[in-house]
Design a protein that fits this description.
- It contains 6 helices and no strands.
- It is mainly alpha-helical and 173 residues long.
- α4 packs parallel to α6.
- The termini are far apart.
Length: 173
Amino acid sequence: MKVLIDFVILIILYFLVFYKKWKLKGKDKLFINTIMYIYLSFVLYFTLMPILTSLLFVFNHPYDPMNLVPFIDVLNGRGDFVRQIGLNIIMTIPFGILLPLVNEKCNNFIKVIFYTFLLSFSIEIIQPLISGTRSSDITDIITNVIGGFIGYILYLIFRPIIFKMLDFIKNLK
């Protein structure tokens, strides 16, 4: 139920702010920006939600500092590290594909990696603030950046097909 509040706010925000703005730019921009918005909403769902109902309790739990030893779970054989690494990589592959489509200025490797890092770093810093049960880990940042890198490579490979699809959407009546 708490997560539902966050999704309702995201839907309202989409229609009151972004939909009108993106619709003016054409059907192709509306489509790709909406896909990115939905993707980022689900990233928030899996990493940070519930957000709004947690804000009142931000200072009611200890803040555990980020684990700065890369792949310590792998080295110590703790937990389900293979699953965690895989999910962190998979989570940011779409970001590496969508970012250059949403923002033409981010159409190179360095910028995609930088923004993937910023996305991941922001999540990792905010997670323990929102919930005392969440922790942040440098391994998550590294694997998220790897996912963004893979996504950008896939973008480069499939760019001609993606642009044909966007041209088709642009020309729909």
